[in-house]
Amino acid sequence: MTTPFGSYELTRFPADPRDRLRAWDAADEYLLRHLDAGTGERGPVDLAGAGQITVLGDRWGALTTALAAHHPTQITDSALTRSATEANLDRAGIGTSKATVTLLTTRDAPPARIDVLLVRVPKSLALLEDQLHRVAPHVHADTVIVGTGMVKEIHTSTLRLFEQILGPTKTSLAEKKARLIFCAPDPALVGERAVAPSPAPWPLTYTVDPDGGSGAGLTVVNHAGIFCADRLDIGTRFFLQSIPTNTDGARVVDLGCGNGVVGTAVAVADEDAEVVFTDESYQAVASARATYEANVRPGRRTAEFHVGDGVAMLAPGSVDLVLCNPPFHSHQATSDATALRMFAQSRKVLRPGGELWVVANRHMGYHTHLRRLFGNDEVVASEPKFVVLRAVKRENRPRPM
């Protein structure tokens, strides 16, 4: 990526030479050009004397890496983004010491005072709303606020959030299908002494209806950014009709756990089960923990909660059952790369005889990948849109090349 601030070799995380998706896009480039030279009637931003710079929603660390000389703070919901940022900074010879950049998650408190706020518009409007609410008390009347995104990512509802939470908002002309958002902080809305701070609606809580299979009656807690925030999504609902809950004290992983309703259903049905929740989203793992704690009885064995790359943090051969509703998008791009990595990781951490259960849209064709990895697959349940697949790790099967 070539920018006014330098040229950088950037990759997503985990780095894969076969991955044709870039670690930046035209929206990142447009924002960096604006910061250096200005756009339309708006001049460049004096980053050298700007004070505290916060980068919200950086996809793979492209903005943070390019602006590292100005000591920005990155706030991200993705552990993979954080790892990509660290790797890209190291590749650029910058590193992540406190003297260069600060890496925060969406669950951390924002910087006390934000002088420049750069917002990479996320796919989730709810996550944008939540994060703007979180930073609003730390913004002041002179804060420079610039957002960026592809044209297809910026809607009237996006601009309305900026206006309702931070202040009057305008957009730039489009360049290479990207657009900038300019927001002028309203003293009545921002800062610790805001006259009319708008209420933040998150988290949301609901109870699973009687048709929710093994999840029926569970209390579900969703922090912002979790898919289908106010009800069970139809894929998870279908999965809950089929998953094994009589696990006889097994070690069970809810992989890509989201709000944790699948793993919690197992924990409630089998109090001896050792349940592990993992997701790359900090918001998701916070939701899973809240859902688990809202449903299990006091004194039940403690579950594990991990934010990271699938089950990479678990020891090989340490798991009996993996339950997975894999994503098939990477931000706006449709991709099965994440799901296939989840399947390969699952095979590694399963004990011989251990099982991977997957729910997915039928058109994804995951059965062929499971058969290649495990040497077997079984259709447990199917309907016109979804299918539940089961694969068993056979002892002494050679690992596919």
Description:
The protein is 26% helix and 25% strand. It is of the alpha/beta class. Strands 5-4-3-6-7-9-8 form a seven-stranded mixed beta sheet, sandwiched between helices. A seven-stranded mixed beta sheet has the order 14-13-12-15-18-20-19, sandwiched between helices. It has a two-stranded antiparallel sheet with strand order 1-2. A hairpin with a 2-residue loop joins β16 and β17 (333-334). α4 packs parallel to α5, α7 packs parallel to α8 and α9 runs parallel beside α10. The mean pLDDT is 93.
In short:
The chain is 26% helix and 25% strand.
Which sequence of SSEs, written as H and E, runs from N to C? EEHEHEHEEHEHEEEEHEHEHEEEEHEHEE
Assign a percent range to the helix content: 25-40%
- Structural class by sheet pairing and helices: alpha/beta
* Mean residue pLDDT: 93
Strand content: 25-35%
Low-confidence runs:
none
The number of helical runs is 10
Major sheet summary line: 7 strands, mixed
Number of strands: 20
N-to-C CA distance: 32 Å
User: What kind of assembly state do the chains in view correspond to?
Assistant: single chain
Shape: globular
Radius of gyration: 22 Å
List the strand order in the largest sheet: 5-4-3-6-7-9-8
How do the helices and strands line up, and which of them pair or pack?
Elements (H helix, E strand, L loop, with lengths): L1 E2 L2 E2 L18 H12 L15 E4 L5 H5 L6 E4 L2 H13 L10 E4 L8 E7 L4 H11 L3 E12 L5 H10 L3 E3 L6 E6 L20 E4 L11 E4 L11 H7 L10 E5 L5 H9 L4 E6 L2 H14 L8 E4 L11 E6 L4 E2 L2 E2 L2 H13 E12 L4 H9 L3 E5 L3 E7 L9
